Each structure stands twice: as C-alpha cells, then as structure tokens.
Amino acid sequence: MPQIIVEDLVKTFRVAERRPGLWGALRGVVRRRHRIVRALDGVSFALEPGELVGYIGPNGAGKSTTVKILAGILVPDAGRCEVLGRVPWHKRLDNARDVGVVFGQRTQLWWDLPVIESFELLRDIYRVEPAVYGRNRDELVALLDLEPLLDVPVRQLSLGQRMRCDLAASLLHAPPLVYLDEPTIGLDAVSKLAVRDFVKRLKRERGVTIILTTHDMDDIEALCQRILVIDEGRILSDGTLEQLRARVTPERWLTVDLVDSDADVTDPDATVIRREGHRMTLRFDPQEVSVPELIGRVSANYAIRDLFVENPPIEEIVARIYGDRRT
Amino acid sequence: MRAYWAIFQARFRVLLQYRAAALAGFGTQVFFGFVRVMVFDAFYRSSSSVQPMTFPEVVTYVWLGQAMLLLVLFRPDVEVRTMIRTGTVAYELVRPLDLYALWFSRTLAARTGPVLLRAVPMFIVAGLFLGLEAPASWVCAFLWVAATLAAVLLSAAVATLLTVMLLWTVSGEGLAALGPAMVFIFSGMIIPLPLWPEWAQPLLDFLPFRGMADVPFRIYMGHIPPGEAVYALLHQAVWIAVFIAAGRWLLARGTRRLVVQGG
Amino acid sequence: MLDALRLYTRYVGVSLRAQMQYPASFVMLATGQFLVTAIEFLGIWALFTRFGSLCEWTLPEVALFYGMVHVAFALSEAVARGFDVFPGMVRNGEFDRVLLRPRTTALQIGAQHLHVTRIGRLSQGLAILLYGAWALGVPWSLAKAGLLVASVLGGACLFSGIFVLQATAAFWTIESLEIVNCLTYGGVEAAQYPVTIFRPWFRRLFTFLVPLATINYFPAHAIIGRPEPLGSPVLFQWLAPVVGVAFLAATLQIWRVGVRHYRSTGN
Fold this sequence. Notes:
Largest sheet of chain B: none
Number of helices of chain C: 13
Oligomer: heterotrimer
Shape of chain C: globular
Shape of chain B: globular
Helix content of chain C: over 70%
Number of strands of chain C: 0
Order of helices and strands of chain B: HHHHHHHHHHH
Distance between the termini of chain B: 44 Å
Structural class of chain B: mainly alpha
Structural class of chain C: mainly alpha
Largest interface: B-C, 36 and 36 residues
C-alpha cells in the first residue's frame, strides 16, 4: 500500500518581470507584467513505506515545489496527492505531525538558544509525550554524537554540527516520513559521511520513508536504491540507478595505467576520453564488444600496469538525460 | 559617464522601493500633528484666560515640530554600537584621523539629509492646509535660518556625545536609553516650553535642549523678538561648544580606556 | 485552547530568559520607557494647570482614560510584537517552517517575541490609572473591577488585532503597512483623551471604524458612574470590551485568508 501517491501534479507560478532601464522601472511601478512559470507539469510517482528515494534535477526543476506540496505548504493547481491517506494541503496540521523536514540551507533551530532548549520547544510544539521524547532524544543524541553540543547556542555551531542537530530535531517526534532537502550542502567530508551514515541507519533501523533532494551524486550513489529525475516540471526517469544508466547509455569506461607514458592506446571499438600522464580512459559499448574481449585485446597489445572497468559517473548520466530532454 | 548613469538608475530604483515607507512615515507624522492640534484646540476652548502663546502660534509650533522631528529623535549610531560590540572599533582608533571629527561629521550628515527630506514636504502640506503660518517678518525668517543651522549643529553634538558614551558599555547604554527621552521633552516637542508652569521656566531656559527646537520655532514666529534672538543664538552657541568639548574629552578618555583594556 | 496557552507560556519563558541575560540593560530600558511615558502625562498635567480643564473634563478623569488605554497598549505591544518581524519571515522563507509545524500560524508568530521592557509603559499607565481612580473617589465593586480588567484586556485584543492586520498586508505586498502606525501609536495618542473633545468625524472614526473608544471612554463612564455625554446606553458601556475581542477574531480570519493566499501562490 503506497504511503505517498502523487498523480499528475501541476503547479504554475506568476513571476513579476523586471523591466530594463529607468523608464521600465517607472512603468513597473504603475503596472506589473507577469510571466507564467510551470514549475510542475504533470508529476506522478508513488512511494512505499520505508523507501529511500533520491530526487534529483537541475535548479528550478520543481524539486522544492514537489516537497512543499507533499508537506502541505503549497496547494497545487491540479492533480491528486495523498500522503498517509490524507490530502496534505487540506489537513495541514495532521500532516505536519507525521512529517519531518530538513532544509540544508536554513536551520529550524532557534538561533540564540542552546540546542537542548530548541529540542524541548519542539517537543511542546509537536506535543510529544515526555517519555517518548526522552527516549527519542537520547537515541538521536547517541546516534549523531550530539552530547557535547547540547548546551551550545545554535549560532556558535559549525555547519556540520548544526546539520546533525537539525537532523535530530526533525526526528524528535518520530515521523514516519522525512524530507531531506540538500542535507549535505556545504559540509566537510567527515560530516557528509556522518550524515550519510545516519540516513542509512534511519532507513534500516526505523523504516522511515525518506525523500532525499540533492545535487551531490555521491549521496545518491551511497544511499539511494531508487532515483527520480525531474527537469522542467516533468519526471524524466523513475527507477534504480542501473535502470537509469541503462536508459541513457549502456556505455562503460575502461581506465588503464600504462607502463610507458608515451604509449598511445587505440582500439576499433573504443574511444579515448581522457589522458593524464600514465592513465588513459576509453569509452566503449559492451553491446558491441564484450568486457572480457576488450580487456584481453588491450592487455595483449600494450604494456599495462593496471586497469579497471567502471560505469560513467552519475553526473554524466544525469547531464545526458537533461540534455536529451532539451534537444 | 555611462557608469554614473547606471549608478543613478540603480539608486533611483532603490528610492522607488523606499517611497512607500517614506510616504507612510510622513502620513503618520501628519496624523500625529493633527491630533496634537486638536487637543490644543480643545484646551484653548476650555479657558478664556490669556496664555503665554496664542492658539495660532501653538499650531505653527506643532507643525514646525513635525517638520524638524528627526533633529530631536536620537538613536545611538548603530554602526558604532556594532563596532564596539564586535571590537572592530579598534580599526577606527588606529586610523590617523581625528576620531571625534569623523564621528561628528558622520552624525551631522545623518541628520541633515533625512531632516530636509521630511521638512520640505511637511512645510508645503502644513503651510497650505494645516495652519502653519509664514514667518513673522523677513528679519525673523533670516534669524530663524541661523537658529536652525545652530540647532542642527547642537543636535549633532549631543548625538555624538551619546555615541561616545557607548564606549562605556553599561552606563552608556543606560544613557542611550534615557537621554533621548529627556532631550525630547526639554526641547519642547511634547508641549511648547512657554506652556510649562512659570516656576519651571528658568530651568528650561538654562538647559541646552531648547536650542534644538523651541528657540528656532519661536524666533520664526517672532515670539522671541529679533532683539532678544541674539541672546538665544548665543545660548545655542555656548551649548554647542560645551557638548563638543565634552565629547572630545570623553572620547579621548574612552579610547585610552579601551586601549588599556586591550579592546 | 489550554494547550495553546501552555505553548505560549513556553515561548514567553524563552523570551524572558533571553532578555534577562543582561539585567542591568533591561532595568534601564524599562525605566527609560517608564520615564518617557510618565513625562508625557506630566505635559498633560502642565496644560491642566494652565487651562483648568479640558472642555468639561477634569485631570483625574483624563488620568483614568489615559491609564486604561496605555495599559491596554503596553499589554498588546508586549504580546503581539511577533507580528512585527513577520514581513521579514515572508521574504526569507522562514514562514515555510512555520507552516511545517502542526500548530496554528498566528499562535506561532505572535508568541515569538515578548517585549518585557514594555513593563515600563505598563506600570506607568497603571500608576496614572490608579491615581485617577483614587482622585475621582470611584465607588468600587467587584463588577466594576471586573469591567476595568475586561476593558483593558479587550483593549489589548483590539490593539493586537491592529498589529495582526498590519502584518497580514505582507502576504500581498511583502512589506507591512507602515501607515497603520497611525492607528496604533496615533490611536493611543488620540484615545488617551476623552473622544468628545474631537470633531464629530474624528470621534466616529475611533468609535466605529477602529473602536478604540471602547477600550477606555465607554467603560470608564460605567465605572465612574457618570452619565455619558454622547448618550450611549449603560449596557453598551458594560459590553464595550467585547468589541475588542470581536475585532481580534475578525482580523485573525483575515490572517487566515492571507495564509491561504500564500499557500496557493508560493513566495
């Protein structure tokens, strides 16, 4: 039974246009001209409980709009949407109780208060039973290593520390649904790993349904079984990472480390993409030449120290899928 | 040349955005002045005894007050306060400039611009519709201009002193909270100074604050006749000197204190 | 309802603790407020010594009107100033976070900032109110005391309603309506005097459109036991506080319209 159902969502915005020049500014005072932007143009998908979905797309594609509609903040122009059996914008208060949201660029904690006081305030806002709150809080503090931060005012925390606290804050009321909007943005490598680790455990141990919006492809690769790609208000792809790859291109990359840096590797079925000193990368289509065949040919004809075969980086895949759509 | 035009365009755009707020502020002041005039009207209707000022004079006084309101409103320099809080005031102290002169000129600039911007439309509107009368004579008008210039200088000197006091955090903040209120009352903005009881007049005459509002207003109306106006102007000048001297002295002591504490 | 009150008290505790961190500064600000407002009344007293009376009103009567409206305003200023920062929240998207919480938006916004220093204006208004009541020799009864409290609370509701209205404009214009300060600060300036001293059109503005006269003018007559010169029925004087509450309820409905607009157009 799907937990989230989204069907043919449409949302348009009226954006005021700024007119160029001084005369334009004066006219703009009297009468504003508007442009219609179709943020969502028929978006449909469904999520089962406990799924962890990556939601990717260029800026302005409609990701935040979708999340806002699911959270009940925004009302769509057309289409159907059900979250946990409710229509989110009709039942904003009930819906809000079952959802946790983290915005990567804005904290939900109170700036001047120590972290623990923000937590307590949230406990009262979400009406969490004291016993339940105590248990959740202790668990989250342990999982995210927040003990030393609890008495620190939020404005004194580093970005990584603040993000961990925000994650905990969004889960204090144990929501079955969590929306993470760019949670790793601007974080250092260690913090990113901590966040990813936490998200994995969240899904595994608590069965929370998670929608993860991100530009960081490493996040996607590390965490997401299922990926939704959106561009210009339409879903371009909905499936696993492998399916996404297969849709765009079956090609794979062969990287070889040569003994002799002057040597040049050529092969009828492969094209060179990159060359850096001893290392060369070639792209090939496994449907035209099988992997073992190509490896055999190359190692036979050239002095090789090391080689490996990989998939094209996900950025490539995603860039191509946007590109294909737009041409 | 094109660069300047572009800058002008950008500035103008910003101005257009502020017009709503400025208009609203102006409207609120007109409303306030209107209420004050009505209250005085009610008081004057209640008694037939002769008062130190006539009702038409009070009306002119009120509208002059609204026009020059920003001269008498004091808020300690926000920039300086943040500088002191964050410690960056140290950079100011290191500069090879006369710090008092710098702060004074900044305060002066901050007071002239906004005052002019508010005063001109207020004169027009109040003069045409609301009972603001013309100056009593050409001599009065001329002396009024001089008195107003002095008032601006006095206002800047007092404001700079308040800003300097911020260097003493606790007592400075306190004075910054209480000072403006005192100034407001003793300058005549609540009720015209002549209307306070007789026994209070000597004190009000001595205090510097009447130089900011009461003196120029009454010169304008001829309530202080041109012959006596000279003494009033002298009063302003003396107090300007006192406040500047006090400001300079306190600043010197204050910076020494900061340097000693290590900022 | 009780739940909302509990949450509100929590917010208040947070604000209090934040502002009490600098007790010296707090005391000075509150004292400054007290003095500023007290000296305004001193001006009124000075005018009374010169003119003897304000139309048909005496100083103690004006003191009563003055005190009631200032206490009401101080209360609402302390309580509803959260709506002051609301336009900024619309601009930077913080309002989205408010919508994400399972609580009414008005409660969350209103509870944000409690200005404890308003106690300066409040205690000053209270002192003058008590002086007026004592000087008039009001024959107190439980009912009259109740009416006094109700009037002040109703007045606080009315002013709060004006603040809500002022902030609601930000849903459409992004800025708040600065001009509404005429009705709040200007309104206090006018309503501290008995409305009969004003011209009829002005009087009607503050009786019917923005009914500030229901905060002090009408109930005070019932309290003093004086026949009201405009001829209003005594029942109306006793029920006047209800007007303030109804006004607040109405503005909260308009606020809801604003929230609905925000949710369909985004920001």
